[in-house]
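Possible regression after last week's pipeline update?

I re-ran a chain I had predicted before the update to compare outputs. Posting the input and the new output here so someone can diff against the archived version. Not blocking, just want to make sure nothing changed silently.
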Amino acid sequence: MTSPAGRAGETTLPTTTTTTTTTVPPPTTAAVYKPASDTGPAENVPKPVLPAKAQEFSKEGLIAFTEYWYSTLSYAFETGDPEPLMTISAPDCATCEAMKKGVVHGHEGGKWIKGGKMVIGQPSATFHQMEDGTYQAITMARQEQVIYYKADKTVSKDLGVTIAEGDILVATYQEGHWTASTVEHIDGTKTS
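New output (post-update):
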């Protein structure tokens, strides 16, 4: 006679299951950007990355460089770190040096700056070399409201809201990269 489990006299072994546990590390959480507020400075501000296009010697390269230059200015206002801005600016760029001094001073000793992000229109350029060897890009630029805070969280200066103005960025191209020589309002005044 055959048993329901198999032939007579056979023993059926129970089925076993092996469970493998794999430890999956928790997902890494990227630092979350937090803009400056009336209670403290910005946190985890993403550093601008120079796009490959902005390194090209072309009209499009000059336009991409102009956009990048303004992003480094925004970054400087939010962080107090002018290094990305100054790396792409000529040592004799008076506007660049003034921006550097202003943002560094605005962030020293526990102070911070709220706002200051640059909002620009689409830059344009004729890509015609000037007599001094420079090239020019023109854009409309506006800076978001800039408020300087002291370490005790009181306002030291509020620059208010500005309107967009025409800006000109004058740059040179040497050794495979653009450098800002100056950036000014088209009426001849310094930016910001």
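Follow-up from reviewer: compared with the archived run. Residues 16-20 have pLDDT under 50 and may be disordered. Marking as no regression found.
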